[in-house]
Design goal:
alpha/beta, Rossmann fold, 6-stranded mixed sheet, two-stranded parallel sheet, 8 strands, globular
Length: about 190
């Protein structure tokens, strides 16, 4: 099935992790608890757009942190296809407002880790301290995130990119029904149901 995560003509790998919306909630609370347990007092959560937005918002709520910013970075163009290097895209975060703060940078996955490293290093120029949190980390990542929910080397299907981009070609209800039929048995299998 075509999804927002595949490039034109690509198919998803059959051996993959599937994150559901319910698991996102569980993972976000797990990561927030790990942050609290570590003693790190978060002043601001910086979510890496787009994949880090859902987790960043959920973690900020779980921590009671109202200050949330985003930094839009483009790197992946399809399944395991990417640009030569991550690129920061507008609109830009007001980094002057971060001076002296303790920031938690949140992304969905540290795959190569290049995006997370870029954002961490940009934030470190302004913040008193920067730590990183991801839902998933892969062994090939160039950095070790401070907080990780799960480790995998498989492709990951996230609930926000599992369906095709909304267009006039595929009715939304039809796309949701098709994806639910495909993803629910796989997610249940991963949970051991």
């Amino acid at each position: 099935m075509t999804s927002a995560e595949t490039a034109e003509g690509q198919d998803l790998p059959t051996d993959r992790e599937i994150l559901t919306w319910d698991l996102l909630g569980e993972a976000s609370r797990h990561l927030a608890q790990a942050v609290v347990d570590s003693g790190f007092a978060v002043d601001v959560v910086v979510a890496v757009a787009r994949g880090g937005l859902p987790a960043g918002g959920a973690i900020a709520y779980a921590l009671g942190t109202k200050a949330v910013g985003t930094l839009n970075v483009e790197f992946y163009t399809g399944v395991d296809e990417r640009l030569a290097a991550p690129e920061v895209l507008p609109p830009l975060l007001d980094t002057d407002a971060l001076t002296g703060l303790h920031a938690l940078v949140v992304d969905d996955v540290a795959d190569t880790g290049e995006t997370l490293a870029l954002v961490r290093d940009l934030m470190a120029k302004h913040c008193a301290e920067v730590r990183t949190a991801v839902l998933y980390a892969k062994s090939r990542s160039v950095i070790e995130p401070d907080y990780v929910w799960r480790r995998t080397d498989r492709w990951i299907t996230f609930p926000w990119s599992a369906l095709p981009v909304v267009s006039g070609d595929t009715p939304v209800a039809e796309a949701v029904e098709a994806e639910t039929a495909e993803a629910v048995p796989e997610a249940a299998e991963q949970l051991g149901s």
